[in-house]
Amino acid sequence: MKAITGFFMAWGNFCAIPCPCKKWDEKARPHMLVMFPVVGLIMGILWYGLFLLVDAASIPRPLAAALLTAYPFVVSGFIHLDGFMDCNDAILSRRPLEERRRILKDSHVGAFAVITAILLFLLFYASMSSALERENPHIMWSLILIPVLARTMSARAVIVHQPLSTSQYQKIFASSKGRRFKWAVSLIWLLAALLLIGGGGLLEAELNPEGGPGLFCTFAALTAAEFCASILSGAYARRQLGGMNGDVAGFALVWSELAAVISLAVI
Hints:
mainly alpha
């Protein structure tokens, strides 16, 4: 089945964990995008598992925050961070459009990429540390679904927005069949959002039956923040670069996951 092939394609392309079955079928590329969030679910389960491990081991909070910060970048093979840095190099150069596109494709790392990556890790680490300081382990199970929500938004953007001429996803955008996959990806996002928000509400009701909305509001705000960050950052990058590609998808994905972790820290 193409769905199974697409799953292993997504695993092999977007996850650093060795793929047990290496497959590739160009016709299954749309299925790869649909399965992208499923790979995110595997990453999220392991992310939450890492939290449980560092919590059980009573690892000092700064080190625990550092491990939980590094994990999403390491497990993805830094591929989305690469897109984030490439886009920042191009956009912040403030050059004409064609020059920005040339910089986007350039394999060299520029100053803007390095500076924004440092700021990203500072914000991510500070937010994760603040979330751990809340000493509420129940909010941390959202780590399971944060990667799913981010990847559904990025996959949908790749399918529905005009690609750059150099993008590997041109055929998907041009194909009416490929564009119908946006509904499958949208459904996955909706299910993940309902599971996160609804699960938070049920958990809060069980833990504190006479209390306020608590986890429900936290997870609803997290979902909204992640959604808005993906939409706004993706739209900004597409406007600055003249279209959609994998780098823009990675740029939006990194911003959306950062927004989610910030939400855990402050809401």
